[in-house]
């Protein structure tokens, strides 16, 4: 929970540079303290292996193997970093049917202040089964003219037409600042696809100086993927993986992070060929 998480382009660049620097440092230490002494000590004792083993050991030490390996690892890291903020086997998608009933506003409204509307109701239609999380962009605001009293954001959800709330939770505003994808979790609903749910958000203390503003069109649903079904149906697994990869590369920050890595690959390749050129001309 306390580890650093990149939230925008600047922090993405800083995180990438920091990670790359740490990787290089660890590699140097590993080579100097372990690999170099080991190979030096065992050089005279080395037994020549058979042709196939020797060929493979030479191949994996060549840049022809190293460069694609580094590139594939980096691509995997980008895909992993820009997936859903939740489990890899989950789908996060905007609601196609989202209606605000209290207050009655359009979903493209810039923001909604819960100081003006302490209770907000909206209706959503689940896009998939295994519905378990709702996310939205919320921000904590402060009114300096009112005394600073602790405040909580109360979350309710139930299926439309039901009398009792399906789940209720409370969130302390002291730990919320600007949360682009704040999760509101509840017990998993297996057969949720196509069903409509009422969601209610309310301020617990109307006399508090703190309140929440939210971005109406940021509301999304998170659905758990049944891994056993994916394994039983290879076509579904292929579709799932392709969608996850395409979603990543539709992300502008992911594209920029990928492009920032290309100069590093170019420098590594160039330095290798320059080294070979100097070796042959020496």
Class by alpha and beta content: alpha+beta
- What is the β-strand count? 11
Number of contiguous helices: 6
Helices and strands, in N-to-C order? HHHEEEEEEEEEEEHHH
Mean pLDDT over the full residue set: 78
CA-based shape: globular
Strand content: 25-35%
Largest sheet: 6 strands, antiparallel
The proportion of residues forming helix, as a percent range, comes to 40-55%
Q: How would you describe this structure in keywords?
A:
six-stranded antiparallel sheet; alpha+beta; 282 residues; five-stranded antiparallel sheet; disordered N terminus
Description:
The chain has 282 residues and is of the alpha+beta class. 40% of the residues lie in helices and 27% in strands. The chain has six helices and eleven strands. It has helices at 9-42, 51-59, 63-81, 227-232, 234-249, 252-281; strands spanning 90-94, 98-102, 112-113, 119-125, 131-142, 152-159, 167-172, 178-189, 196-203, 210-214, 220-224. The strands form two sheets. Strands 1, 3, 5, 8, 10 and 11 form a six-stranded antiparallel sheet that branches. A hairpin with a 7-residue loop joins strand 6 (152-159) and strand 7 (167-172). Helix 3 (63-81) packs antiparallel against helix 6 (252-281). It is globular, with a radius of gyration of 26 Å. The model is unreliable at 1-5 (pLDDT under 50).
What is the topological layout?
Blueprint (H helix, E strand, L loop, with lengths): L8 H34 L8 H9 L3 H19 L8 E5 L3 E5 L9 E2 L5 E7 L5 E12 L9 E8 L7 E6 L5 E12 L6 E8 L6 E5 L5 E5 L2 H6 L1 H16 L2 H30 L1
Antiparallel strand pairs: 1-11, 2-4, 3-10, 4-9, 5-8, 5-10, 5-11, 6-7, 6-9
Helix pairs in contact: 1-6, 3-6
């Amino acid at each position: 929970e306390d580890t650093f998480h990149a939230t925008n382009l600047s922090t993405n660049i800083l995180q990438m540079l920091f990670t790359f620097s740490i990787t290089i440092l660890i590699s140097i230490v590993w080579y100097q303290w372990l690999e170099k002494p080991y190979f030096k000590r065992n050089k005279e004792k080395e037994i020549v292996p058979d042709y196939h083993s020797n060929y493979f050991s030479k191949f994996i030490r060549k840049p022809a193997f190293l460069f694609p390996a580094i590139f594939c690892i980096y691509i995997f890291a980008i895909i992993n970093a820009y997936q859903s903020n939740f489990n890899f086997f989950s789908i996060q998608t905007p609601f196609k049917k989202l209606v605000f009933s209290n207050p009655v506003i359009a979903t493209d409204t810039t923001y909604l202040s819960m100081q003006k509307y302490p209770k907000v109701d909206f209706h959503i239609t689940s896009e998939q089964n295994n519905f378990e999380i709702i996310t939205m962009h919320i921000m904590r605001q402060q009114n300096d003219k009112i005394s600073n009293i602790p405040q909580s954001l109360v979350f309710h959800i139930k299926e439309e037409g039901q009398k009792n709330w399906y789940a209720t939770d409370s969130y302390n505003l002291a730990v919320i600042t600007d949360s682009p994808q704040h999760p509101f979790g509840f017990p998993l609903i297996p057969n949720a696809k196509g069903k409509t749910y009422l969601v209610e958000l309310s301020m617990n203390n109307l006399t508090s100086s703190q309140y929440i503003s939210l971005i109406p069109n940021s509301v999304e649903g998170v659905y758990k993927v049944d891994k056993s079904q994916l394994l039983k149906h290879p076509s579904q697994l292929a579709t799932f993986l392709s969608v996850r990869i395409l979603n990543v590369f539709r992300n502008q920050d992911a594209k920029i992070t990928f492009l920032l890595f290309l100069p590093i690959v170019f420098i590594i390749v160039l330095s290798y060929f320059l080294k070979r050129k100097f070796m042959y001309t020496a």
